[in-house]
What does this fold into?
Amino acid sequence: MAQRLALQRLLVLPARGALASHGRAFGTSAGRRSTFNVQDGSDFQDRVVNSPKPVVVDFHAQWCGPCKILGPRLEKLVSKLEGKVLMAKVDIDDHTDLAIEYEVSAVPTVLAMKNGDVVDKFVGIKDEDQLEAFLKKLIGA
It folds into this structure.
């Protein structure tokens, strides 16, 4: 019986270790914390408007083809900045009130916010160089 328990522990521990190293291999910790989905108006207020860090706000929709290209591209560049900027994702179908408040008339629309104010904005798809310039301007690099 004791041998069986010891064997089970040995079999379980490597599996946990494998999962932990697998998660680290993909670098999920920094990227996941830098990007988040807005849940509602109060969440937007707390995590975007009141954020001490600059925030890129991606207004998108599930049915929007260009959004599906821009979103991952933008997330990748935000994660490379290692927490210097955050990215909030706002689905306009779920949060029409926020889309109206921020005058979003087409998707994708991306806002750059600092201290609760919109400091820059673009509509449509951008390539990686243009996105990098947009982000550098936001963080002052």
Q: What stands out?
A: The domain at 35-139 is CATH 3.40.30.10 (Glutaredoxin). The first helix runs from residue 2 to 25.
